[in-house]
Design a protein that fits this description.
By secondary structure, this protein is of the alpha/beta class. Helix content is 37%, strand content 18%. It has one domain: Alpha/Beta hydrolase fold, catalytic domain (Rossmann fold), CATH 3.40.50.1820.
Length: 298
């Protein structure tokens, strides 16, 4: 493991996904103690997207933005929100120059699949319909997310393709949870890795699905047809149970004719980019912004 990351392991907050209420409180406290991102070069605004029910979003609008990204936070479908994602969303807007639409989707187990995906899709449709108001080209809208948010981003591309929904220019999947079956080598063997391991992953899927059979919209790795999807950037962490399913998904996208950039970050673990003082984390965050900037620029 990267030594800068390893030094922080004793300081990581507890996030027992078997106890959603405690996990949410722990992560909220951790997020509140972090430095506030520099948003001086952008306008930050909380809005509500009309839906059933309405969906809260936080807009990060850099000056002269060309495109926008619908951004979905991580948290195993169980915790996280606009406040806990404030740092990453601000960094992503600054690094990409794109409008970041951070989505406060409903959480499980109170709201199981497809609640979170329905919220995300409503925000995608709203973003496309309000592109002129946001000052961006409606042909330059991306979707992206971390962990559970990466799952939702991938599912958005499938649903938008199948329903002839808003055009998605690019998908950014960071350490995404794509496969509920947990049959890959990394999912089977990473039983004590930091932040996310096999047990937490199983709890996450249990809360999200609630006993339902997984469809491709719930677990995009189950999709049999990946053709016609937008170009992708997929980032994986070495010590992450999601690692191998993400790499397999990247290969399947390539075989379906979808352009893919895949970056496997050595020495990292799931969510370790939140440790911003580490050099590898700074490079990870900078790359996320840079790939979005390239994808949404002229």
């Amino acid at each position: 493991m990267d030594p800068e990351l390893e030094a922080f392991l004793p300081l990581l907050p507890e996030a027992d996904l078997n106890d959603p209420v405690a996990a949410r409180a722990s992560i909220a406290g951790y997020a509140a103690a972090r430095p506030v991102p520099d948003t001086s070069g952008m306008v930050v605004e909380d809005r509500t997207v009309p839906a059933e029910p309405d969906v809260p979003v936080r807009l990060y609008r850099p000056h002269r933005a060309q495109g926008a990204v619908v951004w979905l936070h991580g948290g195993g479908f169980v915790f996280g929100g606009l406040d806990s994602e404030h740092m990453m969303a601000g960094l992503l807007a600054a690094g990409s120059g794109a409008v970041v639409v951070s989505v406060g989707y409903r959480l499980s187990p109170e709201h199981r699949f497809p609640a979170a995906l329905d919220d995300a899709y409503a925000v995608l449709e709203w973003t496309a319909a309000h592109a002129a108001e946001l000052g961006v080209d409606p042909a330059r809208i991306a979707v992206g997310g971390h962990s559970a948010g990466g799952n939702l981003a991938a599912a958005l591309t499938l649903r938008a393709r199948d329903e002839q929904g808003p055009a998605i220019r690019f998908q950014l999947l960071n350490q995404a949870g794509l496969d509920d079956r947990q049959e890959t080598w990394s999912a089977r063997n990473f039983t004590d890795t930091p932040w996310m391991d096999r047990g937490r992953l199983a709890a996450s899927w249990r809360h999200y699905l609630g006993g339902q059979a997984a469809t491709p919209y719930a677990a995009p790795a189950r999709a049999t047809d990946l053709s016609g999807l937008p170009p992708a950037h997929i980032a994986t962490a070495e010590f992450d149970p999601n690692r191998d399913e993400d790499i397999a998904y990247a290969l399947r996208l390539l075989q379906a004719g979808v352009s893919v950039e895949l970056h496997q970050w050595p020495g990292t673990f799931h969510g370790s980019q939140a440790i911003l003082s580490a050099d590898v984390s700074q490079r990870q965050v900078a790359e996320l912004g840079a790939v979005l900037r390239r994808a949404l620029s002229g």
